[in-house]
Amino acid sequence: MPKTNNFPPELYVATDNLIQNLLASEPFLAYQKSRVQYKSDSQAHGLIERLSALQAELRRQQTNGSVTQADIDELRAVQAQVQANATLIAHASTQQEAVNFLREINQEISQLLGVDFAILAKQSTC
Amino acid sequence: MDEIGLNEIEVASLSVVHAAERDFAAALAETAQFKAFEQTYEALSHDTTAQQALSAYRDKVESLNVLLQLNAASENERAELERLRQDYLTRATVQSYAAAQADLTTLCQQAAGMISAAIGLNYAASCGASCCG
User: What domains, with CATH codes, occur in chain A?
Assistant: First the structure.
């Protein structure tokens, strides 16, 4: 893990320890496993890329008013393939489990601190 | 002797994760940034002049709410609103609190950034803290 400048050493150790334990927790082990499977599954990647490209194309056509029933049918067909793909289903569900676990952890950290840690940690980008 | 499965060694139990989370919260609470944040918050809470200035500003915003939404407030009303805002923002306790909050925010962003980079999920976004909310 890269060292962050001016970061209190005790907090660095505690953060690293939290990270290691999060990574070794059941929800994150399952998520990491599904991520590895997803990265090595070219069919799943292809489906997501195709869905993304079709959605972008449909948005473009909507502004021109040139969407056809065939375009919509094609999008629905790819959406159905995505929803039926085992790798993508596993990736989505394990990610949601990991997010739920992270929220639980954040809630408890925030209760101990008396302030929402995630709110303080958010990056203002707008 | 019972055989211990690899999963039993590799998987961190809930109690271990919760202990790590408590250690993290304790370490963060011990930082100079967090202590300054708490102290300045306490000072601001006891600064009755600042609280009155804030109430005056909020009351004015509320009274002008519709006009502000319609962008129909007069120049005088806008100037009065800005004066009340500055009355609050220029209080020493408010400025100290804002500075301490900014320092703590930087620290929390660094910690969350380390966590996010390691776990492959954006910590703040995953926990429901959007950039706008």
Answer: 9-109 (1.20.1500.10)
